[in-house]
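Batch queue: ligand-bound targets. Current item pairs a single chain with pyridoxal-5'-phosphate. No template structures supplied; prediction is de novo from sequence plus SMILES. Inputs echoed for audit trail.
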Amino acid sequence: MSTPRPIEPLGHAVPSTVPTHWYNLAADLPEPTPPHLHPGTKEPLTPDDLAPLFPMALIEQEVTTERYVEIPQTVREIYSTWRPSPLVRAHRLERALGTKARIYYKYEGVSPVGSHKPNTAVAQAYYNALEGTTKLTTETGAGQWGASLSFAAALLGLTCEVWQVRASFDAKPYRRFQMETYGSVCHPSPSELTESGRAMLAADPDTTGSLGMAISEAVEAAAKDPKAHYALGSVLNHVMLHQSVIGQEVLEQIVEAGEEQVDVAFGCAGGGSNLAGLTFPLIGKNLREGTTTRVVACEPAACPSLTQGEYRYDHGDVAGLTPLLKMHTLGKDFVPPAIHAGGLRYHGMAPMVSHALNLGLLEATAVDQDTAFAGGVEFARAEGIIPAPESTHAVAAAIAFARTAESDGRSVLIGLSGNGVLDLPAYGAYV
Ligand SMILES: *Cc1c(COP(=O)(O)O)cnc(C)c1O
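Prediction returned. Tokens below.
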């Protein structure tokens, strides 16, 4: 008997509470999201433009307006090792705050790498393996995405090469150890290994790097290798799609908890994927069925793309290799200060999240770092979980809301996108 390929389903039972389909907000939007444009011609992208970087299944998911996309069984089987993720009532936090709101958190920190990112990493690795890719390249900031893609690549039989922003590569080695444990190779970015990296080093030999620079390197490496593809952990429409498992589970779990609906949902926003995953199914229900969930995107005051950025076409990377995306952006050359929430240090915001903000389907607020950590510490002391520095932005905004009279009798949802156990030096610096 030959060994089955890692992409074949094993055939074991998967609980019915693991979603069978991803939900796509594009089906319910009153106006379509502006298309991505070719960086050279400035015309809408064609599937052929993206083919050197992505498998066809993901290119189709990038533009589909189907409401539901079936989740392949292999992906559901892998999801079932940590999904459905728990929706927990934060009784002790409520008591500590003396609030009359009912606070819930949806906890994505139960995944193997401790964040929501594997929801899309597994899907992306699956479609790449299915179409014959043998290697994935990507960038990572603090390392959550690199670790997530490394995990998914290991399970689906792919190799993975990661460019990590220099500042994090030097200061935060633990996620690199995670990546290497999964069998990936991790380089500091900018590196001497790519043309774009060499150009950036020539311009500034002491640069600490940025996500935009690392993306240029990973994209270039994939474009030059016919067996390799590139994978992006946030921002693109297909990533928002994969993350929708979070919010679809919430829709079931919140009813089980005895609520009619989520009244106000808070999610942190870096590239927009955990926010979209948590809230697009809820916004879709608002649009289709008239529920009235308010959605608040919580971003760092130090990298305020939604609250301070311009809504225009911009590149996703510094070298300008990626398509032009219509998004709230601080400009592709913006290098954010080295805040602890590395996952929120991106100059732009997902086109679908930007569009939803523009349509008034969600709101945005900026939270400064001290306020965010104060919220994280308050949450940890009441509930026990130490939130990821990224997630503390949502926690702090929800706590501030729960302290107002406006929250009386309301159900409040916090997107707890990850845990902070690998970010303890950041907490150490704070406390
Ligand atoms: C990467 C990351 C984020 C930010 O990315 P989004 O695409 O905005 O979700 C938020 N929280 C955690 C735990 C992360 O790892």
